[in-house]
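Run log, item B.
One chain of 251 residues. Sequence copied directly from the ordering sheet:
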Amino acid sequence: MRRLLSSAIQFSLVLIAIGVAAPVQCQTAGATPGTPDLLGIYPGMPMMAARTQLQKHSKTAPVLSNTDPDSGFWMMIPDSRDQTNVFLTRAPNESAVWMIQRSQNFTATEPMSVTALLNALREKYGKETLTMDRGGGGLYLFWIFDQSGKLRPSADQGLTGCSGGSFINYSVNGPPRTPNSIEQACFQSFFAVTAMLNRHDAEMLQAYTVELVNIPYAVSAATNTLNANNAAADKARQDLVNKANQKKPSF
């Protein structure tokens, strides 16, 4: 039990060291409708409100729960090959959104141009904060916001190493106790829309993924989950010890 408590304390100290306060109460919705959204869904939005909002995206395709319903839900619109995934914070937090991903694939008969996508994104979010071309048709654009939801005109290029997708496992098991330098930067400040373009050529898209994530919010929620899991493990261990102590043999 002491080792489990020690691990929780050490992890909390790591979070404080990188500038993320370890919460002691259940996580509540940490955003408002005034912050950036994707299809009207934003980090911190309560689960039921987010499901209702996603259903507005299609009159025919249903919103489906993940195999693990606590982790989130999704929608696939077959005709347009348009899929949206919504990821949720876990108990003891309120079930609320921490990341939204939307992706779409295209064919030669149903194309979309790079220009069309970029125009739509810039109309929605403004001028991108950072850009990174990874070659081979891969182009990444980042709209980075402060925690109040205001678009930042500039940011450290190192934040291009951040990704909400890389945090999915951490949302279950808690962030690493010794995050590397990139993770430290992401955990502190990465509230962003990322557009990942897979270009067929200079003009046409093969596919895209747009992701909206607030990693500091996700870190706070995941820390609550980790602490609750550790406390439950401590209690289960102590209950087992107490039960074992009742089985005193007679000699």
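Observations after the first pass:
- Strands lie at 64-65, 72-77, 82-88, 97-105, 130-135, 138-145, 191-199, 205-214.
- The radius of gyration is 21 Å.
Flagged for discussion on Thursday.
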